[in-house]
Amino acid sequence: MIVIAGVHTPEEHIQAIVEVIEKEGLQAHVSRGSDRTIIGLIGSVEPKLAEHLRQMKGVEDVVKISKSYKLASRDFHPENTVISIKGVNIGGGELVVMGGPCAVESAAQIDEIAGLVKAAGAQVLRGGAFKPRTGPYSFQGTGVEGLIMMAEAGQKHDLLTITEVMTPEYVDICAEYADILQVGTRNMQNFDLLRKLGTCGKPVLLKRGFSSTYDEFLNAAEYILAGGNPNVMLCERGIRTFETYTRNTLDLSAIPVLQQLSHLPVISDPSHGTGRRELVVPMTKASVAAGADGLIIEMHTDPDNSMTGDGVQSLFPDQFADLLKDLELLAPAIGKTFHTPSAVS
Ligand code: PEP
Ligand code: MN
User: Fold this and answer.
1) pLDDT tens for residues 83-114?
2) Ligand 1: centre distance to CA 19 (Å)
3) Which residues surround ligand 2, an ion (CB under 5 A)?
4) Using N-to-C axis directions, what is the helix angle for 277-289 and 317-333, rounded to 10°?
5) CA angle, corner 212, sides to 68 and 82, nearest 5?
6) Is the pTM of this model over 0.85?
7) Exposure string (b/e) for 40-57, b if CB count within 10 Å is 16 or more?
8) Whose CA is nearest to atom 8 of ligand 1?
């Protein structure tokens, strides 16, 4: 349920509403928007309480919300969430690009790629140190050493970093070295991991499970939010369909749907969403046109020899740089900004 109060409702009236809710043993989440203040209730609400709240000073309406997720919903939080990390704002008007290899392979590799990611104008360096591989005999990642290599490359090239965390035990160490923690598609419903991320103190990029509905996806985000972490990004990375030509089917509808249902920033991953290099450029542009707040794109200097199978979907550095130049032109057409470094002559 939500209580709607006018934007000019004095603070003491809002506080009085919150007190009444908390006295009943329920949680109250206050969200101040530009045209109204929303007080969201979590817990089961007796009709008597709803009626009492309706009579209170400053209350314009009391509305029942039937969705199972609350904190993730736009009903609870009408304004977009903007996640600010060291001067980069995700979910605001600025398009955010995360680029880099599927996996951190060596210090030299991640350093070289970080330089190219920065030069192209991206704000975030991606790279997995812990890799979720389909088979147990495949390369599993460089682990903690990889985390350190990536943190050094990010620092040297002035980039934020994002890396995947697969188990609750590794959340603290990943949070120590990376700016954003990624939950992979296979772990979207690893509820112990999601709960742990609720208290990790770092923003989380949650990838959609490849067979998950929007409702399941938003409920997974709800676990992190309910644990006390408000900084969650939703990432569409393709779903499994009957089509075999592409690795997954990038669900472009997810972008506007999630933005309608939720206030959380929506990021698109056209690399895993297609699995084919030649489709990454058009699907990146399509994602931006559909309103994505950001992109996460694989790029490799030697994709044929990449240590994971994701070389086939990784852009070459010049393709990545050209794509970002195009995004600089495309972004303003849909009300966003994106700037590549101006050429030095
Ligand atoms: C990745 O980002 O390299 C990755 C493994 O992604 P996903 O979980 O979407 O497959
Ligand atoms: Mn990958």
Assistant:
1) 999 999 999 999 999 999 999 999 999 999 99
2) 44
3) 102, 310
4) 20
5) 65
6) yes
7) bbbeebeeebeebbeebe
8) 184
